[in-house]
Amino acid sequence: MQELRTVAVAAARQAGKLIADAYRTDFRVDYKQGATTNLVTDVDRRSEAAIIEALSQAFPEHRILAEEGGEGSQTQSPYKWIVDPLDGTTNFAHGFPAFCVSIGLEVEGRVVLGVVYDPLRQELFEAEVGRGAFLNGERLCVSRVATLDQALLVTGFAYDQEGRRSNLEYFSRFALRAQGIRRTGSAAIDLCYVASGRIDGFWELKLFPWDVAAGSLIVAEAGGLVTDFAGRAFSIYGHEVLASNSLLHQAMADVLAGK
Fold it and tell me: Would you identify the CATH topology of the domain 2-139?
């Protein structure tokens, strides 16, 4: 596992430097499927290419699922890297300083390694299954907030209008119950902030594996809980994520259920 982690961290840092160097410079912005809410930049593509090159050189037999390029290799390896080369592209494109690189490793259907790197703050979040979660080498632990009225929550909104409308209802419910709600625009950062105790709970709809693979493991290894909205077992291929410090989990699930 040490070699896997070392390569993932180096790839994340390399991509992060590329992103930081390009921040607030001229770069190309395109729109996926013609939707003005779903951006991709040439920096996303260059970051992804750098990560894929690093992973492929070190582990040529491994599969890679990446946001911009899909799943390239069709090998039968049980190892699959799940890559978001720039989570928070809309933030990046507008010069809003909240974005990151996210790299997870799935082995036989289970995420066993997660690395999230925020290049502007130079914060490296990482976790290995069964070995805890860390921020720049310091062990992470979720918060101890136990009631919603004392909780700071975070969420995000889907690119499509239907997903946005659905979450507006949940947002309004939590706004009446929680101490505060934030919206960073990066699900990977949101999950890492739950793991570090900066945020007490997170929910979101219609995310993709590359959004949550690394961050969900980091939350779990920091002592938190990650499920779907109903409290069932979490899958990175599902459409709902509810992450918390575990103490708030049932209360958050109840709000999502309309109770």
Answer: Fructose-1,6-Bisphosphatase; Chain A, domain 1 (3.30.540)
Residues 54-64 have pLDDT tens digits of 999 999 999 99
Predicted TM-score (pTM) of this structure: 0.93
Question: 148-256 is classed in which CATH architecture?
Answer: 3-Layer(aba) Sandwich (3.40)
Q: Is the pLDDT of residue 34 over 80?
A: no
CA-only gyration radius of the chain, Å: 17
Q: Which residue would you say has higher pLDDT here, 91 or 73? A: 91
Strand 63-66, strand 201-205: pairing? unpaired
pLDDT of residue 259: 87
Answer yes or no: is pLDDT of 109 > 90.
yes
State residue 30's pLDDT score.
73
- Determine contact, residues 252/181, Cβ cutoff 8 Å: no
Q: CA 134 to CA 8: how far, in whole Å?
A: 15
Range in 27-31, 167-171, 232-236, 242-246 with the lowest mean pLDDT: 27-31
How many other β-carbons are positioned within 10 Å of the β-carbon of residue 149? 9
Nearest to 69 by CA among 88, 57, 92, 53: 53
Q: How far apart are CA 27 and CA 7, in angstroms?
A: 28
Q: Does residue 163 contact residue 190 with C-beta atoms inside 8 Å?
A: no
Three-state secondary structure call for residue 98:
coil
Nearest CA-CA partner of 208 in 249, 185, 236, 248: 236
- Position 32: which residue type? K
Domain chopping of the chain, boundaries: 2-139, 148-256
Give me 92's structure tokens. 């990046």
